[in-house]
Amino acid sequence: MARVGIYGATGYTGIELIKLLSRHPEVEIGFATARSTAGQRLSEVFPILSDLRLTAVEEVDPATVDLVFACLPHNTPDLIPIVQRALAAGARVVDFSDTFRISDPQVYAARRGKEHPAPELLAQAVYGLPELHRERIRQSRLVANTGCYPLTAILPLVPLVRADLLADSTVIVDSKSGVSGAGRSLSLKTHFGETHETFSAYNIGRVHRHLAEMEQETGLHIIFAPHLLPVFRGILSTIYVNLKPEVDEATLAAVYADAYAAEPFVHVLPGGRLPELRHVQHTNHVVIGYQMVEPGRAILVAVIDNLVKGAAGQAVQNMNLLLGFAETAGLMG
């Protein structure tokens, strides 16, 4: 059995990760950290889960595990020391934040308004999307788990880019996310009274933190419009593309089949059928649909569970590659 450690075990993604690992045939949890609940049993915080003891960050030793998951929010001050300590101890790392997703330090500085805090680690990191970077992930020690919104843009678009089907390099990605995408920390915008029976857009334009990784992985210029749905989990992205004149529905079907027919977690619907959130909630699957709306124009739709394929499930998929397990282990339920 491999041993893994979890930093930030009581956030939404941390809890989802523990649920997945608890049924994984090859893994046991060596430690799980928390801040306000350190010293308690996990079952005291979430009664249906295990009696795993929650520990303060400074009390754990990453040398006792084979791999650590950093399920910490973006810009957590102690993230870099945690990653450095884990790598120095010989553990591999799957990071849930966006700290290592942008591979070019100059792009990082331009998008974040500051230099990267550990460029030597950035140079080691691999973007954690197995469907695109499977072999690099297997050989890596630091994996930057893919962002949830980007996943729903990258996977539908990359096959079209690689097949040179797009008529221009600008596409519109219109995405809707459940409120769990904002994390478990208190925030006015995710209060029940602020989200129930309403629907809102936010961070439209070039300001959203996930935009850089979408453009990095697709090579496209993306106009991104994220929205907050009054549901707990799930992301649905609608993507508008201009195609070359000769591209028809049969061409799209062939390109997607060539790209994803062998992928265990990517499912492409026949032309004209479109996916819904309920098709993927509580699973590690992404479902893609497409429809020609007129010659030279198509609409793509992709759905995921943001807490599973968009976070914890993707992290387990990456862990399986890093530790040499079957890629689907613990994820097919």
Describe the structure in your own words:
The chain is α/β, with parallel strands linked by helices. The protein contains eleven helices and 14 strands. The protein has helices at residues 12-22, 42-45, 79-88, 105-112, 119-122, 130-139, 148-162, 192-195, 211-218, 249-260, 308-323; strands spanning 2-7, 27-33, 54-55, 67-70, 92-95, 126-128, 142-145, 170-177, 200-201, 221-228, 235-242, 266-268, 286-294, 297-304. It has a seven-stranded parallel β-sheet with strand order 3-2-1-4-5-7-6, sandwiched between helices. Strand 4 (67-70), helix 3 (79-88) and strand 5 (92-95) form a beta-alpha-beta unit. Helix 1 (12-22) crosses helix 11 and helix 7 (148-162) runs parallel beside helix 9 (211-218). The longest helix has 16 residues, at 308-323. The chain is globular, with a radius of gyration of 20 Å. The two termini are 20 Å apart. The model has no long low-confidence stretch (mean pLDDT 92).
